[in-house]
Amino acid sequence: MSGRTTAATPPPGAAPPARHPEAPAPGEIIGSHYEYCFGCGGGVAHGLHLQTRAGEGVSVTAEFQVKEAHQGAPGLAHGGVLATALDETLGGLGWLLRVIAVTGRLETDFVRPVPVGAVLHLEAEVVAVAGRKIFCTATGRIGAPDGPVAVRADALFIEVKIDHFIENGRKQEIQAVLADPDQVKVARAFEVNP
Ligand SMILES: CCCCC/C=C\C/C=C\C/C=C\C/C=C\CCCC(=O)SCCNC(=O)CCNC(=O)[C@H](O)C(C)(C)COP(=O)(O)OP(=O)(O)OC[C@H]1O[C@@H](n2cnc3c(N)ncnc32)[C@H](O)[C@@H]1OP(=O)(O)O
Hints:
Number of strands: 7
Distance between the termini: 38 Å
Subcellular location: Cell projection, Ruffle membrane; Cytoplasm; Membrane
Shape: globular
Helix content: 10-25%
Structural class: alpha+beta
Pfam families: 4HBT
Bound molecules: ligand 3IX
Low-confidence stretches: none
CATH class: Alpha Beta
CATH architecture: Roll
Number of helices: 5
Enzyme class: hydrolase
Order of helices and strands: EEEHHEEEEHHH
Family: Belongs to the THEM4/THEM5 thioesterase family.
GO molecular function: hydrolase activity
Largest sheet: 7 strands, antiparallel
Strand order of the largest sheet: 1-2-3-5-6-7-4
Radius of gyration: 16 Å
Strand content: 25-35%
Number of domains: 1
CATH topology: Thiol Ester Dehydrase, Chain A
């Protein structure tokens, strides 16, 4: 069952996604975009620590082990945390297109409860692109890449420029990022996008 709305459905005339020639090779790990990202940063003690990997075509995979700090009901993952795992995995698709994009809409189906200790195997792919709008989908399966589907999402990501972060982020973090040459390299990597 899918609760996809028209907002997350590509309009007629949307283009099939094109893998960028400089996209990471299938199997290559896509590094964290920001050390203090709750989804992928190594600097967040109770974060999800997702490590996303490039897949075939315009797709990515990742694994998320549910920890005690991620509970909603006793012994079960919080739905918002699972949505975050889907969102972060979908965010990795920007690296395959070589665009910076943020979540505009995330429509999530919770199909099965996910116990603490379980590993959620996540997969996301771009379905279509229309201008700045990137239509994509993701699933999270319990225990194995072909395990039972626990969560799935349809999403609309919107391409933005670096200024989106510079103009909207809190000053102290933005200044710290701009002072870090490695982080600037990550942020600027997509600016020239033929
Ligand atoms: C130097 C410092 C930089 C440091 C950064 C470091 C690294 C950066 C690299 C990568 C980071 C990138 C991503 C992170 C990766 C993963 C994390 C997971 C992803 C997230 O967690 S990310 C956070 C949550 N996310 C937001 O924080 C967005 C808040 N939001 C906005 O900032 C605006 O809302 C925005 C920009 C989305 C759009 O604003 P806008 O003004 O640019 O464009 P506009 O409104 O015109 O929309 C254009 C077309 O999209 C349609 N549209 C828009 N929104 C829609 C919706 N909700 N439903 C249906 N349609 C929608 C319109 O209807 C129109 O469609 P049409 O063109 O057909 O009319």
